[in-house]
Amino acid sequence: MSGIMPALLMLCPLVPAVLTFFLREDSHRLRNAVAIGSALLKLALIAVVLLGVAAGNEYELRIPLVPGLYMLLRVDELSLLFITLSSFLWLVTTVYAIAYLGGHENLSRFFGFFNLCVAATTGIALSGSLVTFFFFYELLTLSTWPLVVHNGDEKSLSAGRTYLAYTMGGSAALLLGIVWAEGVAGPVEFIAPLDFEDTGTLAQRLIFVLCVGGMGVKAALIPLHGWLPTAMVAPAPVSALLHAVAVVKAGAFGIIRFIHDVYGIARVEELALGLPLALIASATIIYGSVRALQQTDIKRRLAFSTVSQVSYIVLGASLAGPIAAIGGLVHLVHQGLMKVTLFFAAGALAERIEVRSVDQLDGAGRRMPLTMVAFSLAALGMIGVPPLAGFMSKWFIGVGALEAGRGWVILVLAGSSLLNAAYFLPLIYRAWFKPAPEGAVSAGAERPLALILPAVVTAISVLGAGVLAGLWISPLGWATLIVEREYLP
Amino acid sequence: MSADLLALLLPLAIAVPLVAGLLSLLGPLRPHALSLLPLAPVPGLLAALLVPRHTSFEAPDLLIGVRLALDDNGAMFLAMASLLWIAAGFYARSYLRRSDHQPRFAAFWCLTLAGNLGVFLAGDVATFYAAFACVSLAAYPLIAHERSAEALRAGRVYIVLAVVGETCLLLGFMMAATSAGSLLVPEIRQALPGAPHPNLTIALLLAGFGIKAGLVPLHLWLPLAHPAAPTPASAALSGAIVKAGIYGLIQFLPEGAGPALWSDVIVAAGLVTAYSGVAVGLTQSHPKVVLAYSTISQMGVIVAVIGTSLGHDPAPGTLASASFYALHHGLAKGALFLGVGVIAASGPKVVRSVMIVMALVGLGVAGLPLTGGALAKLAIKGSFAALPLHLVTLSAVGTTLLVLRFLIVVRATAAAEPEARPEAGLLWPWLATAAFALAVPWLLFAAATGEALSYPLKPENLWSALWPVLAGGILAIVAARVMRLEPPNVPEGDLVVPLGRLTDGLVRLVATLPPLRLPIGGGWKRPGMVGDGLLKVESALTRWPAAGLVLLLFMLGAAATSGGLR
């Protein structure tokens, strides 16, 4: 029984992925029904598993591949945090993508890889061992590449090249690190921190650097972030998925897994690896914000904002304290909800009223009110305005940093908040307080609803995740449960 | 009613304005949005009047555990703010009747109100911060409502300072809450002196609250925002919203246990603010700007009172007297701002009576005997030692001058048509607020100070209240009639202009920082022999069956390699 759930969760996006590849290009209804149906089914399964894990059940599935090599899928609290986020966003992004790509070509290819990408994310969340993790991590790289280059023009292809160059390099480092770790410590499962008894500290440090550095490419830590702003040439639903849940999150999630379940926070501190990582993350936070401030293209601004915001997650994980760990974990979810809202809105603006750069935003609030309300909420959340979701992340990371004796981190948070305000508030200001340009058409801009409502739904979740943060089932409540179970076994 | 039921008034005081704000944007009430404004603060007023002190309400599922609580000082602020918001709400109904964008104005009005009352009710630091951020940010659309160049400029200065203030507060709160190991405001306040970095924490809190309260040199937004905002919003801004900063200082600065230096620093900062507010205010000729500087000056006095409470062994009831002073100032300044609109609608026939009420309320701020203001001044005197006491008393002379300046410039704005009369919707809310300013302090004096009502009527107290007003009056006459002094011209918002240049430069500097980029990917863009080949492979890969095949091969390869490595 306990093995069925991970299998079902895994098959839920995988089966439609395979099916979709073989669907005819014009069978839109069937393709959409398969995608949305399986997303709904997966959410239902997750609800069951959530209750089970909260009650203390364990779900685990071992699939032998070749002698001595097996895939291990396990549902624990941390994987549920990620998988719930990814499934929820899969559903809304699918609805959005169907509306966004309505009349485009190559839809079967697109949705096939789209679902495959979600399958890979699910696999990453469920991985119970490093080898399994690596397998899905690579699957993710390969299934997202066709999405990045979907438009097929020279710009997309060039972005795709950059993307592959970065991520393949990262993967090579990660693979080397994994092989080394398994070589010295045997098969690595995410249960207890590794047994490194016979290994020198230098080797331990190098393994850490290889693995975290490798995953840092996807998490867009500087100076490994170069691919991310380039990859935003992809269609908006892809950017939304990439920035909110799939690629950058896979990197961040991997780093969390590695710190918590492979090395353990205590050893990370012992090896003096936490501080350098925290410094890199802090530098990324500030650097990403400054670069975002310099961008005039909305999607590029959002892309650099992602560079900055994802490092909050890494920062929280690197601070070696329970409260900061909660902050990092909860930001994994919060950043996803906020950023997906921003990209949905940015895509709708570009698609419906041709607004792509910051100075075209004038009067957009009147022309697309629902979209801009959602955008504004998410942007305020990013700045850290309470009671929105982003505030909770900042509060826990800040308090956690102080508790861990790294007070300087709150200056990074403050600087980042100010920079966030500096690059988001002018957008809100233009949209709501400046008149629309002469002759701007706004009638029927917010159609079809499937293009508009996903942003509204995720914006409401940004508000809900903050206001109802005290509930046990809120992202914050769940992140607290994860950390409690880890620190108080 | 049982205490449990009454405790529900605490969350309702915040929830009702929030719902009213939502209703004014959506649904059938949209055309009547302004009518919701006077109703929204009513639960707040009821809470201040009916809820027993030290009642609390908890909602552990909201935020990180919302706790609302009402203590004596909080009730004083809550009552004043609710009364003022009700009156200003009635006033706004008339004032903005022909204005555009009523639903939007109403929505942000209600949001600001909810945050404002929330500040006075918050019992935990997260709720406090959320409410404070709410009042700060939601006030922006009220200030910028007119969309004129001045309104937008005022809004920009305001929002920059507000965001900086919020950030300072966030840092201060994080540090204070961490060292206290608690989120509850009283515990945080108690633990503050023993925190690892008490000086930094206090400085951050002082900056954050000081920006809201208009502490010089953080006051820059006030003289710009007040004239830009619609009149009822100016009244709420100066009367109630600015008080959120004062209340924050009262709630978080450690009473009787502050590091010794801080008491003196804060008293000095308050006095500097009190005097510079008067000095710059006298040079202004827009009535609302003069009033804004008067607010700055009065907030300086209150901050000085709060400063004395930090020293060892402060006079008992210091913070209660500060709250009492704030209560009077809120109502009086609210009435004066509302009066600006009334006078603009008054023709020669009625303007004289209107001016008499304005003079009474205005000189009340300077401490005219028998007004509520005289009681407020009397209440705070016990807090000060010798030198600061003289300086505070002397500042009343300055306040008198400033009020006279205001009366002169506002008189000039009266309507020219002989028959012009203010409409009832403006007149009555203004009169009511003026009456509250004069009378409410009498009702609360005994409770706030512990003195009998005969105390302010003692001859020596009457005289000490009267002479600064007389002196100010004589000075004004001498300056205007005898010496024919004309005030120099100081731009509204004094330091904004040079500081604005500085920040613009800073922003430009940030905007030109060079990007940091690894050379990965760049080299591939120049197709050479290899590049051409790659492009061909790549375009083949874009056809999905090929991509799928490669993917499958890779997966098999990956599985095989990792298998082989075992």
TrEMBL record, chain A:
Subcellular location, record wording: Cell membrane; Membrane
Keyword Transmembrane in record: yes
All residue ranges annotated as the NADH:quinone oxidoreductase/Mrp antiporter transmembrane domain in the record: 127-417
Stretches that traverse the bilayer: 6-23, 35-55, 78-101, 113-137, 163-185, 206-228, 240-259, 271-290, 310-333, 370-388, 408-429, 449-473
InterPro entries: ComplexI-like_HydComp (IPR052175), ND/Mrp_TM (IPR001750)
Cited Pfam families: Proton_antipo_M
EC main group: oxidoreductase
Key words of the record: Cell membrane, Membrane, Oxidoreductase, Transmembrane, Transmembrane helix, Ubiquinone
Membrane topology recorded in Swiss-Prot or TrEMBL: Multi-pass membrane protein
Annotated Gene Ontology cellular component terms: plasma membrane
Keyword Transcription: no
E.C. number(s) listed in UniProt: 1.6.5.3
Superkingdom of this protein's organism: Bacteria
Protein name per its UniProtKB record: NADH-ubiquinone oxidoreductase chain L
Protein source organism: Lutibaculum baratangense AMV1
UniProtKB/TrEMBL annotation, chain B:
Transmembrane segment boundaries: 6-26, 33-54, 74-93, 105-122, 128-145, 157-180, 200-222, 234-253, 265-283, 290-310, 322-344, 356-380, 392-414, 426-445, 465-483, 544-565
Keywords linked to the UniProt accession: Cell membrane, Membrane, Oxidoreductase, Transmembrane, Transmembrane helix
GO biological process terms, semicolon-separated: ATP synthesis coupled electron transport
Residue span(s) of domain NADH:quinone oxidoreductase/Mrp antiporter transmembrane: 122-399
Main location class: membrane
Superkingdom field: Bacteria
Subcellular location: Cell membrane; Membrane
Gene Ontology molecular function terms on file: NADH dehydrogenase (ubiquinone) activity; oxidoreductase activity
Membrane topology: Multi-pass membrane protein
Record's GO cellular component terms: plasma membrane
Name of the protein: NADH:quinone oxidoreductase/Mrp antiporter transmembrane domain-containing protein
